[in-house]
Each structure stands twice: as C-alpha cells, then as structure tokens.
Amino acid sequence: MSDRQLWEERARAAGSVVVRVADWDAVAAYAVALVRPDREDLISGEAAPHPVLAAPGLPAPCLDALRARLAPDAELLERGLAAQAGGIDVGLARALAAVADTGSCLVEDTDENVRLATMLPDISLLLLPEGAVLPDLSAAGTVVRDALSGDAPRRLTFITGPSRTADIERVLTLGVHG
Description:
By secondary structure, the chain is an alpha/beta fold. Helix content is 29%, strand content 20%.
C-alpha cells in the first residue's frame, strides 16, 4: 500500500472525508456545495444573515474560482474571521503535508485567520498538494524543522479528523473543542 493510500485509509478512520480534485475550479465546486444557505447562527440560534465561506491565504486562482461559484448573497472571507466567529459555514486552508501513519495533515497556521478557518466552521476543508504525503512522524519532523528554521515565529498544527472531546463521564462529542 502506498503512503497516499495509507493516509487516505487512516484519515477516513479518524472521521475525515477524503476527496481528490483536479483543479481550483473543482475545489471551488466542492467547497461551495457545502455552504448551506438556510443555516442558523451558532451563537444566537437565529437565521444567519448570509452564507460565509472562509479561505484565508489561498492563491488567487482558487479565490477567483470560489467567487465565480458563490451565490450573490454569500460572503468570501480572507481575513477578519474572528469577527465572524459563529457564522462561518465552511473554512478552507492549505496543508503543508500529510502523515500516512496517523491520517493527519500538517497545517502552518501562524496567521490567526488560517487557524480560525480550521477551527470555527462546521466544515473545515484542508487542501493537500499531490505528493505531499509523508510516511510517518519522523519524516514529518524534517518538514517541521524546515518550517520552523526561519527567524519569524511560526505555528504548526497537526490535524487528524474532526475535533472531539470527552467529559469525565466518558461521553465523546465530535465536532467541538473542549
């Protein structure tokens, strides 16, 4: 089994959905299809004023494809995500690499907007470049070391499936940070 196949298997086992896409237009089509026009605001419980898709730090061709597909009343956020904390439907971010052994993705999320795009929305999509799957955490260590070798402080996060938490009574809840 290839590293890519093992990563896909482990990512799915952790609760992720793995979809291969051919180009930025296919990324946009997939992401926009997940934006729900009839959702409620998660904080107030009232109808949300408009659908929101967050895509901080993505390349211009991807942003152009998203804009072309979004409904006229939908909003594409590239920054200022903290101000919309309870109202983001879908978040998109780029992964630096993936780890086959764990089904994880490695995300450089020094920018608060990237970090929030992976944590706040009901649905978080990570864009993984073809050929960026590493066999194990030892191999990922090289990527981490290279990413942290500059002068500026950086933040890296390994993400494996939907967030989850359990309370003292051992009740597991998926999709929340706790």
